[in-house]
Structures are given as structure tokens and as C-alpha cells.
């Protein structure tokens, strides 16, 4: 991890309220799937804290993209960037997804803007000979992100929308029941991750991992802002071990390590 | 340029410290730069027993800053002495232990525990955390603060710094009571109590309801309190609150701080402390100062004793 200045190469708009920034890094320290960066643009007057974002696609060792929904001043400042603009990126941060040593049947579950970390993960799994299926969900058709990009990697993609405007009508996690999976990797809103937890608890798929999101100030472990409750606290730590840091011990946790 | 400064008998190689609660026990920052560059480190609050901290959500965004209600999550005194202090001891910098407690006995147990430990330069008594039950108890009443400080004073020979809350009517009265009870220095300011509302969820953003505001937004408040403490009291002040540049640091020094601490800035720029040290040197030069002593209270004649 290190703070660095990166450059916007291209700005894409895959959905009306979403922006993908393709950026160039000064060096080629490739992050692992599931890791993230703290990004900040502008002078910090409207929003002081940097924004945690998982990287999305990798185009070359120095070229990574970030995909986000524009929701507040922080993402507005990022969305205002254009090609050749510069921004600060601290990272790569956190623990990414553990990759299997042997080929297996993997299912990726992404909800809304939770899809980005699954692109590089899916590719890494394919490189290890895994058969990968991606399930992506959103409230409505226009919110489905990354379908074409995941399909371009050669994986099967199934979709679900809350309003039934495309794919399965209902939560994306409904689709899990119809699949044979040796491993499940999920990233998305908390209710979706909770449903993945319940699914993992209901059948023997121990290799289920969740990428969490949390309000975060620093991203590198000093502020203790991004606490998540541990399901099995380390007795050696006493009450101090009640919470883990999403930024440092996570953002990826095994499904049974955290209480959502 | 002479960046050395002295606070409560302690020599600092430069006046830039890291503020408690924004730096853990140094391990993360040590992955980025040599901690020996720092004038000093004010560690995350240490309590007698391990504390879990508050339930999430613990932070909220704010213009020019942030709100936090971490709730002093920390591994406790034993862990600090066994693991964290030995780590910090490797670095040639002044380690100041921030001490927290729910009650007098809690504070005193930590003070006794760190007293005499190699590598502990001073104690910062945190009687001003707004994010735990009773956190501000000792700040609300100068007399009560004075009683606690007097007991701590008897329990240790280490330099004793008391962290002052801005969430009181009269910070100077609070500082005066601490000074009279034996405090060697004051640090100011802690965060300002505030809150944020989540419109969609119809509730406060922070689970604790309220949190402490920090960042550049609070700098004017910090400067005012440091200025007032410096001109009213004879013990030195360590200034903090919204420092994110060498110029901010110099403003605090000119207001009357003998040293400064960088806090929230490290969230936006993890390299802020060493950057600020370098910037401060240039800013002092540009302003025509050759030493911290010379810049100290340059904008606060009463503190310098020039005006009676």
C-alpha cells in the first residue's frame, strides 16, 4: 500500500447514475481481486474523506478502472473528473478473495455496484481452470452493471431484478438454489450478503466469501471507523476483539466470520 | 532552521506530533514512513481493560471534516505494554500515552501501569472524549477535573498533559483547574460534539447518535482555544484541530502552541505528518522565523508576556 497520484485515461458512463473511470497508475503493483483503494479528488472542501472503491477491470498492469454510483459529494467529485485529470489513490488495501488451489465450480454474486470486484476475481478463477457463473442483480434493468463485461470474459451470467424488468423477478440470491457450487463469492448490499450467509448456512458450501462495504475514514487501519462485528471473537483479545476492521482484516471475510 | 521545541521538560526534535486516535499505535504508518521523523506520537487511548468500542456506524462525512464515534476501542493496558509499546520503542520519537477511563480508578490504573515503563515520555489524560458514556464527565466541572488531575499527579512522575474539551463553556477555567492540580501541559482541542442525519433511513447516521467533529472545519475553534489557554495560563499548550499543512501548524504555534498534533489529515493523506514537518520549515523561513521559540505566540503578545 502507498499513496500515489494517478491519472484518468477515460471516463465511461455504463448507466445513467454510474461512472467508470479508467485510470493509469505510476507503477505496476497489481492489486489482488477484492482489494480496494481510497480515492480522493478535489480540494476536500465538500467532502474531506477519501472514498473506498474496489477496482473493477484491469487493462494492463498499470491501467485499472473504478466503477461507482454517484450518490454524494465524494462520488460527485470523482464523477466530475475527465481524461488527463489527476486524483489521489491510496492502496492497494485490505485482504482480497482467497483463490482456490484446484479448479472448482465457482459462483459470483453481485448486487448493484457490488459487481466491480467480481470481474477481476472471475478472471483469476478462470485462469485457475474454474468454471465460473456470475449472478448479478439490481433494483431495475438499468441498474444491472457489468453483464456484457463479465460475458466478455466467457462466463455464464444470470440476472435478477427486484421489479422483474430483466431476468429473474426477485432477489439475485434466489438464483443460488438452482446451481451446483463448490465456492460462492459475493459483493453487494447488506441484505444480499445476509441472504448469501443464510444460503451458506443451509448447505455445505464452506467456501463462501463476502466482500463488505463500510463507512470508512482512513482505509488503512488507523481510524477504527469501519468496524464489523465478529461472529467468533478471538478470546485472547477480550472485548477488544468484538469488532474487526473491514479495511484491514477485510474487506473479504468468510461468510461465518462476521455478523451482518 | 531550529525545529526543536520543549514541552513540559520534554525535548521534541520537531514540533509535529500525531494526534491520539488517528494513528493507532503506529504500526500502520510505519509501513509508509520512518516514525523517527516525527516529533512525537500520541497513541490511541489506552484503558485498564480492553474496550470493544461502539457499534457501527461509527463515522459520518461532513464538509471540511468528519464525525466519529469510535468509542475508544482499544486492546487495554496489558496488551499495550506487552505488544504496542515495545513496537514504538524501536523508534527515536517521543511516545505520549493517551489514558482513558470510565472513572477515577480506571484512569489511575493505567497511569500506574505506564509509569516507569521504558519508552513512555509522557501521559496525555483524555478527559474530553465525547463518544463514550461519562467521557466528558470530568470536563464538565473544572473542580472535578482538578481532583482527578491531582490524584494522577500523585501517581506518576511522568510529564502530565491534559486534553481539553471544546465542548465546555469555559475551556480556560478547565485548563486553569488542571494546571493548579499539577498538569504540566495541556493539549487542545478534542473533537466538537455534532451529528449527522440519514434522510432515507430516518435516523442519525452514527449509531451512537452523536459524534466528534474534526478536520479543517474545526481549526478556527482550535486556534481560539489554544490562543486563550496560552495567554491565560503559564503551562505550555500542544495545539491540534484541523491541521493539514505546514501553514496550519505555524498558525497554531503563532497562536501559542509549543507543539502541534496532526490528526484527521492522515485519513486523507497518510503522509501528512512528514509532509507538514517539511512544509513548516519552509513556512517559518518565509515568515522570517529562525526557530520554533521565535515563532511561538508571535501573534499572541499576552502569552509572551509582552502585554500585561
Can you offer a commentary on this structure?
The complex is a heterodimer of chains A (about 260) and B (about 300). With about 260 residues, chain A is an alpha/beta fold. Chain A contains four helices and 17 strands. Chain A has helices spanning about 75-80, 115-125, 145-150, 190-200; strands at about 1-15, 20-25, 35-40, 50-55, 60, 65-70, 85-95, 105-110, 130-140, 155-160, 170, 185, 205-210, 225-230, 245, 250-255, 260. In chain A, a hairpin with a 2-residue loop joins strand 1 and strand 2. Chain B is of the alpha/beta class and about 300 residues long. Chain B has a single domain (about 5-305), classed as TIM Barrel (Alpha-Beta Barrel), CATH 3.20.20. Chain B contains eleven helices and 16 strands. An eight-stranded parallel barrel of chain B has the order 3-4-7-8-9-10-15-16, surrounded by six helices. A four-stranded antiparallel sheet of chain B has the order 5-6-14-11, with no helix packed on it. Chain B has a two-stranded antiparallel ribbon with strand order 1-2. In chain B, strand 1 (about 5) and strand 2 (about 10) form a beta hairpin. In chain B, about 60% of the residues are buried. Classes of the chains: A alpha/beta (about 260), B alpha/beta (about 300).
Strand content of chain A: 35-45%
Structural class of chain A: alpha/beta
Q: How many angstroms does the end-to-end distance of chain B come to?
A: 30 Å
Largest sheet of chain B: 8 strands, parallel, barrel
Number of helices of chain B: 11
Overall pLDDT level of chain B:
96
Task: Identify the CATH homologous superfamily of the largest domain in chain A.
Answer: Nucleotide-binding domain of ferredoxin-NADP reductase (FNR) module
**What is the global morphology of chain A?**
globular
Question: Given the helix and strand composition of chain B, which structural class is it?
Answer: alpha/beta
Mean of pLDDT of chain A: 95
Major β-sheet profile of chain A: 7 strands, antiparallel
CATH architecture of chain B: Alpha-Beta Barrel
What share of residues of chain B is helical? 25-40%
Amino acid at each position: 500500500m502507498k499513496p500515489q497520484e494517478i491519472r484518468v485515461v477515460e471516463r465511461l458512463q455504463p448507466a445513467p447514475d454510474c461512472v467508470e473511470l479508467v485510470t493509469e497508475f505510476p507503477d505496476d503493483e497489481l492489486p489482488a481481486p477484492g482489494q480496494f483503494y481510497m480515492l480522493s479528488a478535489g480540494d476536500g472542501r465538500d467532502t474531506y474523506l477519501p472514498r473506498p472503491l474496489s477496482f473493477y477491470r484491469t487493462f494492463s498492469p498499470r491501467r485499472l478502472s473504478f466503477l461507482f454510483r454517484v450518490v454524494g459529494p465524494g462520488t460527485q467529485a470523482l464523477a466530475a473528473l475527465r481524461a488527463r485529470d489527476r486524483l489521489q489513490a491510496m492502496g492497494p488495501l485490505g485482504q482480497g478473495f482467497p483463490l482456490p488451489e484446484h479448479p472448482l465450480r465457482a459462483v459470483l454474486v453481485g448486487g448493484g455496484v457490488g459487481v466491480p470486484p467480481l470481474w477481476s476475481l472471475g478472471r483469476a478463477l478462470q485462469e485457475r481452470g474454474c468454471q465460473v457463473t456470475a449472478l448479478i442483480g439490481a433494483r431495475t434493468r438499468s441498474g444491472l452493471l457489468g453483464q456484457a463485461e463479465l460475458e466478455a470474459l466467457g462466463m455464464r451470467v444470470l440476472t435478477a431484478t427486484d421489479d422483474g424488468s430483466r431476468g429473474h423477478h426477485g432477489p439475485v440470491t434466489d438464483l443460488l438454489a438452482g446451481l451446483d457450487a463448490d465456492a460462492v463469492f459475493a459483493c453487494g448490499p447488506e441484505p444480499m450478503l445476509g441472504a448469501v450467509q443464510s444460503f451458506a448456512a443451509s448447505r455445505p458450501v464452506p467456501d463462501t466469501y463476502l466482500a463488505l462495504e463500510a463507512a470508512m475514514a482512513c482505509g488503512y487501519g488507523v481510524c477504527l471507523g469501519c468496524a464489523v462485528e465478529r461472529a467468533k471473537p478471538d478470546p485472547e483479545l477480550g472485548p477488544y476483539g468484538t469488532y474487526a476492521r473491514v479495511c484491514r482484516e477485510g474487506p473479504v471475510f468468510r461468510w461465518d466470520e462476521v455478523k451482518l | 532552521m531550529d525545529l526543536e521545541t520543549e514541552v513540559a521538560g520534554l525535548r521534541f526534535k520537531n514540533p509535529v506530533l500525531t494526534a491520539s486516535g488517528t494513528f493507532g499505535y503506529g504500526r500502520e504508518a510505519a509501513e509508509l514512513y520512518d516514525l523517527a521523523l516525527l516529533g512525537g506520537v500520541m497513541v490511541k487511548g489506552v484503558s485498564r481493560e480492553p474496550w470493544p468500542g461502539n457499534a457501527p456506524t461509527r463515522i459520518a462525512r461532513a464538509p471540511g471534516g468528519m464525525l466519529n464515534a469510535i468509542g475508544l476501542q482499544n486492546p487495554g493496558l496489558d496488551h499495550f505494554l506487552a505488544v504496542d509499546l515495545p513496537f514504538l520503542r524501536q523508534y527515536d520519537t517521543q511516545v505520549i500515552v493517551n489514558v482513558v477511563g470510565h472513572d477515577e480508578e480506571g484512569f489511575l490504573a493505567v497511569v500506574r501501569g505506564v509509569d516507569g515503563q521504558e519508552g513512555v515520555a509522557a501521559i496525555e489524560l483524555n478527559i474530553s472524549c465525547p463518544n463514550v458514556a461519562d467521557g466528558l464527565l470530568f470536563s464538565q466541572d473544572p473542580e472535578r477535573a482538578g481532583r482527578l488531575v491531582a490524584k494522577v499527579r500523585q501517581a506518576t512522575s511522568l510529564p502530565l498533559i491534559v486534553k481539553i474539551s471544546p465542548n465546555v463553556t469555559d475551556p480556560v477555567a478547565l485548563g486553569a483547574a488542571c494546571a493548579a492540580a499539577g498538569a504540566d501541559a495541556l493539549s487542545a482541542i478534542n473533537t466538537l460534539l455534532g451529528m449527522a442525519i440519514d434522510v432515507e433511513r430516518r435516523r442519525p447516521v452514527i449509531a451512537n447518535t452523536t459524534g466528534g467533529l474534526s478536520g479543517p472545519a474545526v481549526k478556527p475553534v482550535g486556534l481560539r482555544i489554544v490562543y486563550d489557554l496560552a495567554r491565560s495560563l503559564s503551562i505550555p499548550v500542544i495545539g491540534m484541530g484541523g491541521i493539514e499543512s505546514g501553514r496550519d501548524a505555524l498558525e497554531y504555534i503563532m497562536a501559542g502552541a509549543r507543539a502541534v498534533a496532526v490528526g484527521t489529515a492522515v485519513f486523507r493523506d497518510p503522509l501528512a505528518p512528514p509532509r507538514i514537518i517539511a512544509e513548516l520549515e519552509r513556512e517559518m523561513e518565509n515568515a522570517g522565523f529562525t526557530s520554533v521559540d521565535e515563532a511561538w505566540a508571535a501573534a499572541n503578545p499576552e502569552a509572551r508576556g509582552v502585554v500585561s
